[in-house]
Write a structure and sequence with these properties.
Elements (H helix, E strand, L loop, with lengths): L1 H20 L3 H11 L4 H25 L5 H23 L3 H25 L2 E2 L9 H18 L3 H12 L4 H27 L6 H21 L5 H22 L7 H35 L7 E2 L2
Antiparallel strand pairs: 1-2
Helix pairs in contact: 1-2, 1-8, 1-9, 2-3, 2-10, 3-8, 3-9, 4-6, 4-8, 5-10, 5-11, 6-7, 7-8, 10-11
């Protein structure tokens, strides 16, 4: 019962982050499941099954708050579903010994990307109003869907920054559209895992706990996306993902680092993480001061 409550809280926290940043539900949840010894393919399958419910609630909430561009949803979501099914099939055919470090490397890479992206640049919008083309969104969806299924998360970290970097869609609509499209990705990945694995290794109690926590948080996150500073949140979440998956890799058979080496790495990682958060807070406050002194200007970056 205690574990189910913990998983529900993780689902709630992960969805608050995901609905506010457009990423990190899968990465955060999968990281925890791996940390407690879940089979990599089963961990990804568990998260994607839960995401069918959370993304449905999240997408509906974002739609009600006017955060969804349906053209973007379809152009990225359908190729994303194809990529997710392929990724689920690929991961299911890897041995556990191979899959765990592979997944940790994917998650670690995504964590580094999230931390760097939000700490250094925040969210930029420089070409608002220009259309997002299918030839850009379709390959992006295909790659993001594949990474999402093989890494237990990655749809948001791959898709959201890429669309944000185009500067053609305001951040709240990027986040809302990516979250909504993830519903199709979650269904396709779940079908892929269930086809390849059956229900082996999947604890449906865990699925329900993650889903309930995420469903509770989804409407709150859709509202918070308007007011929360994503730059700071991105730095916080990126650090969690990096530290947790570094721990998994250092203990894996691939590296098998000594205690002294691991502790030294942890010290460095925590120091970098703390510096990143401090820098994000400072830059966010600086941007806030600039916006307050020039209220009639249109900001080039959105950090609040």
């Amino acid at each position: 019962m205690r574990k189910l409550l913990l998983l529900a809280l993780v689902g709630l926290g992960a969805q608050l982050v995901d609905g506010s940043l457009g990423m990190a539900y899968g990465v955060t949840s999968t990281t925890l499941l791996l940390a407690i010894g879940t089979n990599p393919a089963a961990a990804s399958a568990t998260v994607h099954l839960a995401e069918i419910g959370t993304t449905l609630v999240s997408g509906t909430s974002h739609w009600k708050f006017g955060n969804v561009d349906w053209g973007v949803v379809l152009k990225i979501g359908i190729p994303g579903a194809v990529g997710a099914f392929a990724g689920a099939t690929f991961l299911s055919n890897l041995s556990t010994e191979t899959a765990e470090p592979v997944m940790s490397i994917v998650l670690l890479t995504l964590g580094i990307y999230v931390l760097t992206r939000f700490t250094l640049w925040g969210l930029k919008t420089t070409h608002l109003g220009k259309p997002l083309r299918k030839r850009f969104l379709s390959p992006l969806g295909l790659v993001a869907g594949f990474v999402d299924a093989t890494g237990g998360g990655g749809w948001g970290p791959v898709g959201t920054p890429a669309i944000l970097s185009s500067g053609r869609l305001e951040p709240r609509k990027v986040i809302g559209s990516v979250d909504t499209a993830e519903f199709l990705v979650s269904i396709a990945a779940s079908i892929g895992f269930l086809t390849a694995l059956g229900s082996k290794g999947i604890d449906f109690g865990w699925v329900a706990a993650l889903l309930i926590g995420g469903a509770i948080a989804a409407p709150i996150a859709a509202w918070l996306v308007r007011i929360i500073p994503p730059r700071i949140l991105g730095s916080l979440v990126g650090g969690v993902i990096i530290v947790t998956n570094s721990r998994t890799l250092l203990k894996s058979d691939w590296i098998d680092a000594s205690d002294g080496t691991r502790y030294a790495v942890y010290v460095v990682l925590y120091a970098v993480w703390a510096a990143a958060i401090a820098y994000s807070v400072r830059e966010w406050r600086k941007a806030e001061r600039i916006e307050q002194t020039t209220p009639e200007s249109v900001p080039a970056s959105v950090n609040a």
